[in-house]
Automatic annotation (TrEMBL):
Transmembrane portions of the chain: 7-24
SUPFAM superfamilies attached to this UniProt entry: Di-copper centre-containing domain
Protein name per its UniProtKB record: Apple domain-containing protein
Keywords: Membrane, Transmembrane, Transmembrane helix
Organism lineage string: Eukaryota, Metazoa, Ecdysozoa, Nematoda, Chromadorea
Length: 334
């Protein structure tokens, strides 16, 4: 036991006084480049057993990583592109704005402000038009919008979309499962909706942890392109950004935030013409409305249909429903 403790002390001492040999990227001997693994094997060759040799290598790798991060931080340069900015004043010139009294004035006279990321259905009509792809017809062709008609590489006159055929939408139960679980893996499966990821971070990590809890480097899990201190591609304009920078609090402190999720109760609705408040299935909650012709089974008492009503489990337009009702009355009178 005494010899083991003595060896661990020697490892720690060697890290403190370690020469540049271990940290130099291009170490050669006899005109042959020596890899990092070979250098570690040499440094830890006198370990008394396999376990201590592993510990020796781990300590050296940790030291190398720590020094690398400090070197990257020390070499931070002036941002050369918008992606390297962490505040609005830095972003100003990329919007062709001018800074006056600490405020960025845009060419149209408006002030550059912190962005608010909204759920798609909560956008105004003007905001939504910037992103609207177009509606899909009965044959899966995009029938309107800026990309219709659009000749594809396959020679089709229209882009086709298989809406509703693959995948499912995230349900509130899915979100509740994520938020009630401390494990990050369950959250990563739904990481595309970034507000869910941010909600999880705020609930389960403090401010410091949010910036440093990045997966450890492990070539058995991912290539070194995904390591915390690897250059963040494709933003390698000057090499200023590394992957772990994506966890910075500055993004949500100064550049953008997420709008609150939509809620409703017996008094207030969801605040969007594309949503309705479901009172029929437990606690009131906001759900997406259904297009005319879509199914509405189980929601007959709700305002589920967009510009229509739920009739016999199908959403029908208001005028069609009135016409059908008149025909029924006429038939009854006859």
């Amino acid at each position: 036991m005494h010899s083991i403790n003595k060896y661990l002390i020697l490892i720690s001492s060697s890290i403190i006084i370690l020469p540049s040999f271990i940290y130099t990227n291009n170490v050669t001997t006899n005109n042959k480049k020596i890899s990092l693994e070979e250098r570690l094997n040499l440094l830890c060759s006198d370990a008394p057993n396999k376990q201590l040799k592993i510990i020796c290598k781990q300590l050296h790798r940790s030291d190398i990583k720590a020094r690398t991060y400090l070197e990257v931080a020390a070499l931070k340069l002036k941002p050369k592109c918008a992606q390297e900015c962490f505040d609005l004043l830095c972003m100003c010139k990329y919007f062709r704005g001018k800074i006056k009294d600490g405020i960025c004035i845009l060419p149209n006279g408006n002030h550059l402000k912190k962005a608010v990321r909204k759920e798609y259905r909560m956008l105004s009509d003007e905001e939504r038009e910037k992103y609207l792809f177009g509606e899909t017809g009965h044959n899966q062709s995009v029938i309107n919008g800026p990309y219709s008609p659009w000749k594809t590489l396959e020679g089709n006159e229209y882009i086709t979309r298989s809406v509703g055929e693959n995948g499912i939408c995230i349900k509130q139960a899915d979100i509740d499962t994520i938020m009630n679980n401390n494990g990050i893996l369950n959250c990563l499966g739904y990481s595309t909706p970034k507000d869910i990821w941010e909600m999880w971070r705020l609930k389960n990590q403090n401010r410091t942890e949010r910036e440093i809890q990045y997966p450890p480097d492990n070539d058995e899990c991912a290539s070194d392109d995904h390591y915390g201190n690897a250059t963040m591609e494709p933003f390698n304009v000057s090499g200023n950004l590394v992957n772990i920078d994506a966890l910075k609090n500055l993004y949500t402190d100064l550049l953008y935030e997420y709008a609150p999720r939509q809620t409703c109760d017996n008094i207030t609705d969801c605040g969007s013409k594309y949503l309705f408040c479901d009172h029929s299935h437990g606690k009131p909650g906001c759900l997406a409305k259904v297009k005319i012709g879509g199914k509405c089974v189980g929601f007959e008492k709700e305002d589920i249909c967009m510009y229509g009503y739920c009739n016999n489990g199908i959403c029908v337009a208001k005028e069609n429903l009135n016409s059908t009702t008149s025909e029924i009355k006429s038939t009854t009178i006859k």
